Amino acid sequence: MVLCVLTAVFAYALAPDDSRNANQMHLSVHSKSPGFTVKMLTIPSEVNEQNPISVFFFGRKNADSEIPISGYEELGDGIVITEYTSDGSPGLQKEYAADLFPEAASGSEIATHYISEKKFLLGTDKYGRDLLSRMLIGIRISLAIGFVAVFISLLVGITLGAVAGYFGGKVDAAIMWLINVTWSIPTLLLVIAITLALGKGFWQVFIAVGLTMWVEVARVVRGQVMGVKQMQYVTAARALGYTDFRIIFRHILPNALAPVIIISAANFAGAILIESGLSFLGIGAQPPMPSWGGIIKDHYAYIILGKPYLAIIPGLAIMSLVTAFMLIGNALRDALDVKN
To answer: pTM for this structure?
Structure first.
């Protein structure tokens, strides 16, 4: 968990491809296996100075051109490269003059400063993008959707559950009707409906997932509040003239939130799975923004084409992250169990 959070924060610092959304494409080296290595010629472009803080958190606006090459020949005032081809056939030859390269005046200086060997540790996707970089940056989506969705579900669920449990009567009946109606709708179907109403996008998915996860929180909080409000200290608070909302939020809720903490861990894991499912369906995070579910969507056909790792790697990442949150939920349940 800590490793995942640190990875999300320092994603662009860790990613081999630090361009925004790790979207540097090399179509000639698409779908390569992990550990693939190729020589790369970088042709720089004029880009305005970028804010280092923005680059650290959001990546570099990279307009440089990267060309995979299989060989090159130095000239006096330039260089001739042979483009890489995946089938082993002779690649196209192109000549580049030294004036395209600010820090080079000859072919040898171009080779020294602008040709490097690039290794793709997890291989490349079907567009030739570095899969490791896409995975590192994609973890931000999964963690962000978990945090925001759980926050929204807690905000709505605790409020409605506490009001229903404390006041009872018609207020409780109305809120329980809303809970039951929401609960009767399949989660994925409700998320799709909300997403289509709000539009496809990053923040819309956060809101949609959060608005579907408050029901369980509300039911648990309602039950807890109905039990705690019978305690003597609540009766004493009423006798002292405290307002209902002060009694709820200052006296009842602090003694009724232990189960909610456990549910939050499970909801976090559920939010990650829902977001992955939405991205797989094409209504989650939109390209070129990397998402683990989106990566699986792009490559699930490769499972039968002899390159299953393109879909298995993000699948294992989702499974590991969800398992981590479920284990935390189990540990919290044991730690908060007064019988132990």
So the answer is: 0.87
